[in-house]
Amino acid sequence: MINSELKHTDFSRYTFEEFLQNDFFISSVKYPTEEIQEFWDRFEKSTPSNIDDYFAAREYIETISTSEGDLLSDQELGELWADIQTTNIKNDVLEWNTTIGFSFNKNEIKHLYYEYENVLNAQGEVIGTKERDDISNKWFIGQPIGAIWDYKVTGIWQKDEVEEAAKYGQRPGDPKVWNNPDNDKVNADGSVTIVYDNDDKQFLGQSSPKVNWSMRNEFTFFKDLTFSFNIYSKMGHKSLETDYLNKDNAGSKVTNGQNVYAKKGYWTVDNPTNEYGRLDAQGPSGVTTPGKLHNRSFIRLDNISLAYKLPKKFISRWSIEKAIISGSIKNVAVWAKDWKYWDPETGGLAPRTFNIGLTLTL
User: Fold this and answer.
1) What is d(CA 122, CA 128) in angstroms, rounded to the nearest whole number?
2) Do 138 and 117 contact (CB within 8 A), yes or no?
């Protein structure tokens, strides 16, 4: 049985016998899920014979236990959902059915590892304590699990800002990145060296959708011809992208013609846009490729389908009980508020597919 007590243990210091006796491996999983427990039970039945077997199993468990919901020791979750099914019209000519789904999701990290650090004032004096954030994984007390914590791009340096841009080691056409002046270094001669580190990062949003909704409508005419369509949406999430920097042949995008959406409107003196950088734009020292924040909310017309059941008197001559001709289009269209780079849901390709079918019942 997996023990939920948290331990930080260097397993390599122990012999195999000591390892089993102290139960170090299984006690290191903080909050085991049913999936982890089932895997562990199967693993124990396999009679592992050395520590390497346990390490291999541990690597697998860490893969599934470090998912956002399993790793966090204490989090506040909120979800509101609704599923509505209605029959709007039903007669001999038309039957119209609608299904609507809606969910609202909210989460906040309340605790992580119960490890605390001192809180200092401007004079370096200890004025209290707080639970330590997990900066490496970007998990923060009081923030959502998928919080985006990063540098904030505020625009593009323009042609009349040459001197100001030079202070950051940049030039017009490069991205402006917000800087906390309190963190900059004052040199002996009075000059200032602009510094970028964690103190310049901000909470910019979250990567997981806050709202999900879907709607399906199905219309059946004369009980033989059925038309349906399905729409769904994800809203309230954001992401960072660097394509706006127009890096010359970054990832062979120019070679393969994949960067045209940004390259077409790139910054020049005659095109002073704040949307895209110049060709091969650079961030300030320490943040050479800052990501630009985008709203990833979208609405997708996911599916349109049409099906016709052939009249029985027409098909009975071939001893066919039922015949349905159908066609559908998957991924018909998508509308995104802010995202211009490939598909707003996948971040890459999202093919549109066409299907034609014939179903026979003999």
Assistant:
1) 13
2) no
